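Sequence in, structure out.
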Amino acid sequence: MTRAVCPGSYDPPTNGHLDVFERAASLFDEVVVVVAINKNKRGLFTVDERMGLLADITGHLDNVRVDSWHGLLVDYCATHDVQAIVKGVRVAGDFDYELQMAQMNKGLTGVETLFMPTSPVNSFLSSSLVKEVAAHGGDVSHLLPELVHKRLLRRLAENA
């Protein structure tokens, strides 16, 4: 069985993330969307909330599941028999950063990283940008799965 992980913070998950998950799901027997836990960052959504959102928006993909991990991603890969890391890249800056991590991960455990260029319609899209625009009243409904959009607006209203 070929297994890949798609790691990220996903705070919140966007249409760009979903596009990468769907494309990866067509290439691997199993794809695990891994929410990376960083105790030093406080997200808008908790890890459990992000995992729930991700499970909801990937529910139509039979070979995709959601998990979380605190620590080195290569340790997750070794523990769960994962052969590849799939990373979406939007711009050259993403690639420069991700290439260093891919080379380090390959050197540590031999796990391969595959770079998937984002679809052009999502090339500018980031969770932080979506949160910022939404917090200032901008319409981000076309950038997020409907369920995520509703939860984002509710959370922003709660925090206002």
